[in-house]
Amino acid sequence: MRDGKVAGSSAADVGEPQGESDFGAGAVLGLERCAGVEADPSGAPCPFVTAQQLLQGKWSILVLHHLADGPLRFNQLRRRLPQLTAATLTSQLRYLEGHGMVRRQIFPEVPPRVEYSLTDLGESFKPVLDQIQAWGARYLERRQSAEADDGRG
Amino acid sequence: MRDGKVAGSSAADVGEPQGESDFGAGAVLGLERCAGVEADPSGAPCPFVTAQQLLQGKWSILVLHHLADGPLRFNQLRRRLPQLTAATLTSQLRYLEGHGMVRRQIFPEVPPRVEYSLTDLGESFKPVLDQIQAWGARYLERRQSAEADDGRG
DNA sequence: CAGAATCCGTGAAGATACTG
DNA sequence: CAGTATCTTCACGGATTCTG
């Protein structure tokens, strides 16, 4: 659904760069019961399912990563993710915003300006990004080794 | 493609629970150039793109998480992920195996038995899972707070 | 500059039935 | 038990067009 019409729901539409009311918009991840994870039979939702739903997308990690460097404007993000079209970027941004990961600040200037930044919850995602980067590097190293050792049947 | 016919390609088909040749099967993530990430203009592939491609799926994280607890048989995994059909699980497993994350050991016993476990590379993913869990928990906490504070518009 | 609306292609995931 | 094969669906993401 995140692709359809949302029509300016949250308070970020008023036109002032406030910084609160990031969360609690009602749009939360569809937290299933972890599909039977044994780690927490108390009935609590599974963090992994939660994370999976957020990271499911093709760009979520990338967007969050770029935003982790600091606030960015719409087209700045586009520049960093050339393969991402405006429509998709908007969807991703709205999705992340709806989940309290990203904050949207509108500056009512003459040239319209909108800045995206990580919320507190989004900031808390940084360690994940950090580990992901570390793992990715390891993966790439392994790949190098595999290439160097390629053809040894 | 990971959904189509693979017809026993890797060496894990021979019938003995060996433990090498996990990697280097040739099937590696399509490492793009990070879509213009400024963090590494040297031309190296982006770890985030790599990770994103692996985590793209709907179940990858869950499967890896369960496997992180220790080796599991096919139906053990199915039991832990009831919503996952056999076909999809097979695809996921093959996908992860092809990327060197998961090892498949076939025990040529009378009741057919196959065990899945994390490879060394898969083990190296554990920190990511750990951080994901930590973040997920934080997200859920935030959600609780938001619910408790709901309606304050 | 920033975003909305719409249509469309792809492919991952699900259901079902069959195999060894 | 541990898959495999096929069909179908549908959400994701892309291209295009239009607005303020």
From TrEMBL, chains A, B:
Residues of the HTH hxlR-type domain: 46-144
Statement: the UniProt record of this protein carries the keyword DNA-binding: yes
Record's keyword terms, sorted: DNA-binding, Transcription, Transcription regulation
Metal-binding keyword on record: no
Signal peptide bounds: none
Superkingdom classification of source: Bacteria
PANTHER family named among the record's database cross-references: TRANSCRIPTIONAL REGULATOR, MARR FAMILY (PTHR33204)
Name used for this protein in its record: Helix-turn-helix domain-containing protein
Organism: Olsenella absiana
